[in-house]
Amino acid sequence: MAKVTLPALQQMKREGKKIFGVVVWDYQMAQIVDRTGVDIVSVGDTVGHNLWGQSNPLEITMDQMLTVTQAVRRGVKNALLSADFPYGPLQEGAESAVRAAIRFVKEAGVDMIKLDGAADFPEATTALVKAGIPVWAQFGVTPQTALAYGMEYGAMNRADAHVPEGMTERLIKEAKMLEAAGASILDFTNSGSVVGPKVVEQIGVPVIGGFGGGPWLDGRVRMANAAIGYSAKALDSDTDNYANVAKIIHSAIKELGEDVRAARQIKGTPPSR
């Protein structure tokens, strides 16, 4: 498989080919998804909350994010590698963001930095690009913007969504602002099937989506753990995912325990002589 590049993603957009991204947090998963031909591997800052059990998604630190990203980097050979900032560097200003991004490049070997809430910090996007670091810039409908327009959060993603007056223009303006600031890719959250296609049509860089995205965008990004049902809550879930790894693990460990308690040799070990 050929190494994915940003110009290659631009060409995919021009040709109408969908871009595929996944969020992963460990070396083994990184190796697996890289071999599927995924275009982007993203190290999300929700690792602390979703994988380590941190109660607050803002707890994750810069050093923790670097450690996770280093592990993922070792497993990714072909896809573009992106990493999120933890809460702090972006909010502290453009200079702080550049310093943090340089650490990610030098210490973890990322190909680009993903900026959550980038529409509020366009100067950071410009500063990172000036420093030679590509940016994946997030924008879209947040709980705060939904409240401002008097709509329910997530309503944009419904098939019968009603888009409040002025929201489409605002989101197109934000997308154009981030493109002008130098972003290589945009992440449009809660795009919806009404506004999403309009933004894609008017923006020259790829517009992909995680939460609240859809086939109307240039591509999708999904947490690998969520896609395969790798969480304790999946044990009690009937969601139609691509797999339910939690149930497979649960059954396997129960079987292992039964063999141990019955004094049988356990699977995967050399036979006794």
Question: Which helices and strands appear, and what pairs or packs with what?
Answer:
Elements lengths: L5 H10 L3 E5 L3 H8 L5 E4 L3 H4 L11 H14 L4 E5 L9 H15 L3 E4 L6 H9 L4 E6 L2 H6 L18 H15 L3 E5 L2 H11 L4 E3 L9 E5 H4 L17 H17 L12
Parallel strand pairs: 1-2, 1-8, 2-3, 3-4, 4-5, 5-6, 6-7, 7-8
Helix pairs in contact: 2-4, 4-5, 5-6, 8-9
Task: Please provide a written account of the structure.
The protein is of the alpha/beta class and 273 residues long. The chain folds into 2 domains: 222 residues, Phosphoenolpyruvate-binding domains (TIM Barrel, Alpha-Beta Barrel), CATH 3.20.20.60; 39 residues, no CATH class. The protein has 11 helices and 8 strands. The protein has an 8-stranded parallel beta barrel, surrounded by 7 helices. Strand 4, helix 6 and strand 5 form a beta-alpha-beta unit. It is globular. It starts with 5 loop residues before the first helix and ends in a 12-residue tail after the last helix. The mean pLDDT is 94.
Question: What would the keywords be for this entry?
Answer:
273 residues, TIM Barrel, alpha/beta, 2 domains, eight-stranded parallel barrel
Give the overall average pLDDT.
Answer: 94
Structural class: alpha/beta
Helix count, DSSP H or I runs of 4 or more residues: 11
Biggest sheet, in brief? 8 strands, parallel, barrel
Produce a short descriptive summary.
With 273 residues, this protein is α/β, with parallel strands linked by helices. Helices cover 41% and strands 14% of the residues.
